[in-house]
Amino acid sequence: MSSEAIHLTNDQQSYREKYPELGTGPVPVEPYMSEEYLSKECEHIFSKMWLMVGRTTRLKNVGDFFVKNVECLNKSIVVAKGKDQEVRAFYNVCRHRGTNVASGEGNCKYFTCRFHGWVYDTDGSIAHVPEEDQFYQLDKSKLNLESVHCEIWKGFIFVNFSDKPRETLREQLAEYCERFEDFPFEEMPVAGRWGATLKANWKLFQDAFQEGYHVSTVHAGTIGEYFTGKRNPNCRPYYLGLFKRNRSMSFSYNPEFAPHPSEIFAVKAGGSLSQGDAAKTYALPGINPGNDPYYSFDVNAVFPNWLCDTSAGFFFIHEFWPIDAITTRWEASLHFLPTNSPSQYISQMQSVTLLRDAFREDIATSEGSQAGLMSGALREINFSDVEIPCRHQYQVIQELIDNPL
Ligand code: FES
Ligand SMILES: [Fe+2]
User: Fold this and answer.
1) Considering every ligand atom, which ligand is closest to the CA of 131?
2) What is the distance in A from the centroid of ligand 2 to the CA of 355?
3) Which residue's CA is the closest to the ligand 1 atom numbered 1?
4) Whole-prediction pTM value?
5) Which of 277, 301, 314, 390 is least buried, going by the fewest C-beta atoms within 10 A?
6) Ligand 1 centroid to 135 CA: how many Å?
7) Residue 120 in contact with residue 101, Cβ under 8 Å?
8) Ligand 1, atom 3: nearest CA belongs to which residue?
9) What is residue 6's predicted lDDT score, i.e. its pLDDT?
């Protein structure tokens, strides 16, 4: 697939002409509802690829930890910072009889299994076995919590469940490594966090965040007018890059948008989703690859299951974790450059609230689509030219199932 991106306005060439290899035909509904298809995705994708599980900002101090469940693989891991400041990941499975050693997140000196009290250090090594002399041939060198490959890029923590990862993390991140080398992800704390377990396939829900075709309808009451108007009624991305597995697009703001007083304040005080021209004040490296004069934000799909959407002064993340073929755990967060005044804080909360309301709208329509697919009324989905990122996601996954890594 061509790695060259294209820049478009409404009256220019279609995306299809640039990416003819993606085809134009309908896509089957099966990948969006079948357990059998999900098991193939688990075997060929989730079990083999680097998966982003959280940010190092959650592990500031020695002993800080969080648990991440990957339900589709029946796995639970603990990610923790050891006394040597190293971040590690291990299976959340006691070496005695398998009980989990941690839950949620927090800080601890040791992980203690609640079943019979085996104790592990925060680096996963076995620290204490109660009544050790009652066991027969216990080899304590083999009783550390089972480790999982763990690597960090720009403050994002990744794990890989395969014995020997097929690709390095940088190979998997591909074009994003260079593009975002200088974007200060690590320095941008969380301003808001959202999550839901919803009745929709993980890809179907991710699709809601990688096309703008629905913005003027679904988001008419929230962000619709900000992105759509006479210049761009269907929210076509100005920039679109479909790469080997990742995809990236940039959306423009509507120059005729009349901001509300709260938005005017938010923009002045510290940047906001609806900042229009003021975006230039908060520009960061790697954003706006198409040099859009009306640039708003970039959607960056990072294979396989997250979006790292960047903009001037902030970024937001979506994670899509399949629980089963039609249930997804979605986790999202918004990050700004550090706040140093109350007005900046209020400004950030304006974006947190706006995104919260828009995301609710996306959840409602996605659950509606899933219910419709489950009814059996459709055999196929027709994606339009502007929905080419959804088609690309389908094709990349199908390709990895047909030709496994
Ligand atoms: S299962 Fe953990 S101590 Fe027994
Ligand atoms: Fe949306």
Assistant:
1) 1
2) 10
3) 97
4) 0.95
5) 277
6) 13
7) yes
8) 116
9) 52
